[in-house]
Amino acid sequence: MESGGRTVGAAAAQLQGGAEEDPRRWWALVVIAMAQLMVVLDATIVNIALPSAQRALGMSDGNRQWVITAYTLAFGGLLLLGGRIADLMGRKRTFLIGLVGFAAASALGGAAANSGMLFGARALQGVFAAILAPSALSLLTTTFTDPKERGKAFGIYGALAGGGSAIGLIAGGLLTEYLDWRWCLYVNIPIALLAFFGAMALLHDLPGHRDAALDVPGVLLGCGGLVAIVYGFSEAEPRGWSDGLVLTLLCAGALLLVAFVWWQSRAASPLLPLHIIKNRNRLGSFTTMGLATIGMFGVFLFLTYYLQVTLEYSPVKTGLAYLPMTAAIIIGSTQISARLLPHTPPRYLMAPGMLLATLGMVLLTRITVNSEYASHVLPAIVVLGLGMGLTFMPVFATATDGVAPRDSGVTSATVNTFQQVGGSIGTALLNTIATTTATTYVASHLRDPAQKALVTNEGMVHGFTVAIWWAAGFMFLGAVVAALMVTAGAPKHAPVPDVSAG
User: How sure is the predictor about 73, in pLDDT bands with cuts at 50, 70 and 90?
Assistant: First the structure.
């Protein structure tokens, strides 16, 4: 498809032979999976620690979401740049750099003395995650070239992409209760070190493409637009949707993103080659991922506060409450999607998966201050988890299938970009909807000052349910997109896939 293929045939054949003969390839998958799990769970591991961190560092309700958003926004905003750096320098080298930087940023966050320092460290984590994640996905495609083995590897990867978020919630609960909320950040250091030494010993890669130049104007336009939009959503909570600053931020963000697309059509080495997103199946997969995570990340935030504040669960009990959801994601991805995808068009998994996730969200809107976990929360998160498991694996496999070698890094980055940007927008937008709805509810229902605590709790839960209805709407839209846009048939992988990166 693109230039840069002069050495690809021989190199890919060498990779194929190496992958078939190398008995350590499954250990290599463990290293890649360890790094990917660390990156994904860090988007949520601090969720359960957030009430403790908020009290310790004096954060307001409006600002608390930046602990999550600073990470996902830096991650999502810079992923395309990270993909291009991987194309330029080589996957293994950027993988190692990302691991070291991520560990250092985690140490800084764990030692945070105030909220600003924590926000900054979380953003720095996102920067190095943006370097790490595209390399991990590209290395996966070069390590597994046999179609059957590749399907199993993508099933595990898809399970981590969806289940990692829930695993982060469980780990966050255990670390917060038995150690301290700061260990939700410190825990990344030993994981990163293990993955680093494992990568040095087990991972193999071809040199980077010297002609994969960096698109600095594209980075400034794309990242600037995303930051402006997410910041505008977050400022709508204290200022109101009609505030001048909020409207300016949202309009400026939209204009910057339009300018980004315009520049990508003219840049010599675009950050996001437009032919990647012009492919109907890839664009449908990207969009489905973004809409899924808009709803999913916001719900993690709300449900954590609901379990800890309303139901008065301890941090570890809150984390364990997510365990059925984690199991459902893993089953949906590894036992259903991974088995069916080789014989089934991807949309037959994605669309039903998103519909199941929508149903899970709708079930979750039934929660009240008097609800029980077993009757109201458990059924909803199991259905939601199963839907996410069905969706994520075919999204990753379809989005990265048949990509030219020189674009494998940026394509891998684009999948993760939609995931993290969806998480950023979902957290900021849904948090704003929940808090403004709660404030309105309390103002209209508080008659007796003695009932303030009860009405405030009722208002908080009411705000959560309204925001969850919005999340359900995004999930349903994702089902429609998957059904209408993803038209690919059952995968027919060539013996040497195009995505074996150079």
Answer: confident
Contact 76, 198 (CB under 8 A): no
| Signed CA dihedral, 163, 164, 169, 173: sign only | positive
Q: Could you tell me if 30 and 91 lie in one domain?
A: yes
What pTM does this model have? 0.75
Residue 126 CB partners (closer than 8 Å, separation 6+): 70, 71, 72, 73, 74, 75, 76, 77, 78, 420
> What's the pLDDT tens digit per position in 3-15?
333 333 333 333 3
Residue 403 lies in a domain: yes
| Measured CA angle at 21 (ends 19, 23), to 5 deg | 85
What is the span of the domain harbouring residue 355?
A: 21-214+269-485
DSSP 468: H
Question: Does residue 14 form part of some domain?
Answer: no
How far is residue 246's CA from residue 250's CA, in Å, rounded to a whole number? 6
The answer on 227 and 335 residing in a single domain is no
What one-letter code names the amino acid at 455?
A: V
Which token pair is 150? 């590749």
8 A C-beta contact, residue 131 and residue 97 = yes
**Number of folded domains that form the chain:** 2
User: Per-residue pLDDT tens for 404-448?
Assistant: 666 666 777 777 778 777 877 787 788 888 888 888 888 887 777
